[in-house]
Design brief:
Length: 376
């Protein structure tokens, strides 16, 4: 383990951070960075300002101390800056009016695969990351939010896209703006200036190269906060290795262990096996969660689990996995806030909230295996 805190400063000093960014960016041309393994050329799939170009790391920030999101050329500025403590896009999205059912996923693995240039990235993200909002989040776990808030950056789109997604507008409808590396770095620095305890990347799996690229710039300009990787868990070990010594706190959401549920609810039947391998790798890198004397997370693994209606067996298996195959000291947040959202009404088991009995059983499972429960 690095003696430097946060650990990425050591990689910055040695030049390894830049090399990791370059290595990750090179993979955009034939992207298999996450569990979807699309093999799409993301450099050829550009958004409004996502001009296809050879990846390169920019050298300077245009406005290092900016607090609002600097606009990409030809675009408006994303509307949430640190001055927006309560961005309106965090309101629970209304049920979208869709005419297609849960079977209409972008076709990433057709019978006769087209060339990488023609394959669509499942994550709908090209050369540049898109950001929906960034702000000091005072609703995260107490060890992340502290008194200054967790410096949250919500990335648009998702590599999982569950049909019940609780952030539908962002993951499915693509609410957000493209940002270049300098702009993403400026967001991190603005959150640091605002007194946040960490930088919390939400839905980062499909933008690992862009995060690394921006981190080089942010760290050169004085970023010193620990980094939180706040993921749905559909992450490949190979990609996570690029983050070894970069990420301080891994916060995966382990969703379900039943492949059939994973197929119906996220079109990812291999999700259980992918997330198991991912969490093992995360734990190998950072170990059990460590808190500082003020109770703020410094480093380690913090697992979230959203209890799903009618799926208590999955919850029990997940708790057993954590205790027996990861560590009995794993910090886990057992969450009760599931509500039908997005296309949840199309799959009857999802069309209700969980019962108090289901939540009681979920907590009992975590306690039975001796896990550390995260509480407000
Ligand atoms: S979903 Fe996106 S990040 Fe994942 S493999 Fe496909 S193109 Fe790459």
């Amino acid at each position: 383990m690095s003696a430097t805190f946060p650990a990425y400063l050591e990689l910055l000093e040695s030049g390894q951070l830049r090399r990791r960014a370059e290595q990750a960016l090179a993979q955009l041309a034939d992207c298999a960075l996450c569990g979807r393994r699309c093999h799409a050329n993301r450099l050829a799939h550009s958004g409004p300002d996502q001009t296809a170009k050879k990846p390169e790391i920019s050298e300077k920030l245009s406005h290092p101390e900016e607090r609002s999101v600097p606009p990409a050329e030809g675009t408006e500025s994303p509307r949430a800056g640190t001055e927006h403590a309560e961005p309106d896009n965090l309101a629970v999205p209304s049920r979208p009016q869709t005419t297609s059912g849960p079977g209409t996923w972008p076709q990433t693995q057709p019978n006769h695969p087209p060339s990488a240039t023609l394959r669509r990235p499942f994550c709908r993200t090209g050369r540049w990351a898109l950001v929906s909002s960034f702000f000091p989040h005072h609703g995260e776990e107490p060890c992340l939010r502290g008194w200054g808030g967790s410096g949250t950056i919500f990335f648009t789109h998702c590599n999982l896209r569950c049909i019940f997604c609780q952030n539908w507008d962002i993951s499915w409808l693509g609410e957000g703006r493209p940002v270049k590396a300098e702009q993403l770095a400026s967001m991190m620095l603005a959150l640091q200036s605002n007194g946040c305890h960490n930088i919390n990347f939400v839905s980062p799996s499909h933008v690992v190269p862009q995060i690394l690229e921006a981190l080089v710039l942010a760290a050169q300009r004085g970023l010193r906060l620990p980094l939180v990787y706040n993921t749905g868990g559909y992450d490949l070990v190979e990609t996570l290795r690029l983050l070894d010594g970069v990420i301080d706190i891994y916060m995966p959401d382990i969703k379900f262990f039943d492949p059939e549920r994973a197929r119906r609810w996220a079109a990812a039947p291999d999700y259980p096996e992918v997330v198991r391998a991912a969490v093992r790798e995360m734990y190998r890198q950072v170990g059990d969660l460590e808190l500082d004397p003020q109770g703020i997370a410094r480093r380690g693994l913090l697992v979230r689990h959203l209890v799903m209606p009618g799926a208590i067996e999955d919850t029990q298996q997940i708790m057993r996995f954590l205790a027996e195959e990861i560590s009995p000291n794993t910090f886990v947040n057992v969450m009760a806030q599931y509500h039908p959202e997005g296309r949840a009404w199309d799959d009857p088991p999802l069309a209700r909230r969980i019962t108090s009995e289901e939540y009681r059983q979920a907590l009992a499972a975590a306690r039975r295996y001796g896990l550390r429960l995260c509480r407000d």
